[in-house]
Specification:
By secondary structure, the chain is an alpha/beta fold. The protein contains 6 helices and 4 strands, in the order E-H-E-H-E-H-H-H-E-H. Helix 1 (21-34) crosses helix 6 (123-131). It is globular and about 40 Å long.
């Protein structure tokens, strides 16, 4: 495989407490650099109704091109997960479980927070390097 060709089985997950123009722009930037589709994992408790309305209004533009996974108590309890107070941030792996349910064909996920940026190198080179490292299945 050409190391600049993204694998269709990889998806980037952007973990956020809101749906905003800045978050959508960050997701688009990462999608362009990685050449992998992105999805937002949004803390529904923090985002509330305003975020759902913003996503619906943006639906004709950037948000429609990107999936939004609402990290909510009901979504997590439907999977049989324990939801203590502040579970959406204390239990960071819950977003992965919801993403697996939404994207069962994906073989690999990257999860990034909205405050992550790549310094000292090109993000495209970073992702291209790991695209060919199929034996690496966890990076923290």
């Amino acid at each position: 495989m050409d190391h600049h060709t993204a694998t269709a089985s990889t998806r980037l997950l952007i973990r956020s407490s809101e749906v905003s123009g800045a978050v959508l722009a960050f997701a688009a930037e990462l999608e362009a650099a990685s050449r992998h589709p992105t999805a937002l994992i949004v803390d529904a408790r923090a985002a509330g109704q305003a975020a759902e309305e913003a996503a619906a209004q943006a639906g004709g533009g950037a948000a429609r091109a990107r999936d939004i996974i609402w990290l909510s108590r009901s979504a997590c309890t439907d999977l049989g997960l324990h939801c203590p107070d502040d579970f959406a941030w204390k239990c960071g792996d819950y977003g992965y479980y919801l993403a697996r349910r939404r994207f069962p064909q994906a073989e690999r996920f990257w999860m990034l927070e909205t405050d992550v940026r790549f310094y000292g190198g090109d993000a495209a080179e970073f992702f291209a390097f790991f695209d060919v490292m199929q034996h690496i299945d966890f990076l923290a």
